[in-house]
Amino acid sequence: MLIIFEGNENSGKTTLIDKLLEWRPWFIKCKRTASTWYTNHELPETDPNHDPYPNNWDMNEAFFNDWRFFLEAIGYDPEGFNKASFVFDRCFVTDWVFKKALYPEAYTEAYQKMFDAYEEALLKVPHVIFYCKRKVEANFNDNFAGSANISHEDHMKLQHWYDEWRQNTRLNVVDIDNDNFDINANLNTIIAHVGS
Question: What pTM value is reported for the model?
Fold first, then answer.
């Protein structure tokens, strides 16, 4: 099963994932990095995140740190996702939301077609997306990805597009309210959906 945690900055995703993995240590954690494994190889040498091309690409590293590799794999072995539980801290939904909210110049018709194709692929395998929500104070400022600050205004734009996605998606989504329920209550909800 694919277990995906989505939601705005500071919505409690990572905290819940860490606790879930304490309860289910045999689940396999996958983390989409802010600057993905693949793009790190394409950055200029002067960029602190630059990682020169290795002689042999480590596909294991790519699989667990770049969701594009992972989703491509769905088409090759969909039955494999019945044999193990993979926990994702974000996925392609994050990419869509950030493009719509903060980088509209990167959102194109071709990009939307790619997003729709990923959604169709995910619909064909066992999955659940836990959509985490939490209020953020007016003075919110987040050092996203170590370089670009996310202001309160940016956060509100992101929230708008997360809510738009939530209203329109056909994926299996469970809402997680991190304001009105404590971590144990939310973990019980999560465990009820993912089992053992």
Answer: 0.79
